Amino acid sequence: MVKTTDYKDPGRVELIKQLEAASRQSKGGIWSRVAIELSRVRKNRRQVNVYKIDKHTADGDFVVVPGKVLGEGCLNHPVNVAAFRFTEGAQKKINAAGGKTMSIMELVKSNPEGKSIRLMG
Length: 121
What we know:
By secondary structure, the chain is an alpha/beta fold. It is 41% helix and 21% strand. The protein has a single domain, classed as CATH 3.100.10.10.
């Protein structure tokens, strides 16, 4: 079987460009790191379960996941999570705990310098 190397999600490619631009403008190193993580091939991208977010965060923390958030486990406190993709179960659990789910660019626009953000994966 031949490996496909030409397929690139246009939305992901555009997000990477926007993150690199945001990193240059604000000199915030977290956005360049997120862009690097999103540049990985699909099988090497990060996947984080809800229980891991619960374990490593406190009330009101901002978390960015350069990959997919999965719905395994439960969340016991409100956390704001930005990710490339969410499963339906993960979104429900985060919102039910009083947190907020958002896209990575929404987080960049609300916090361009990347202060007090946890990178998880």
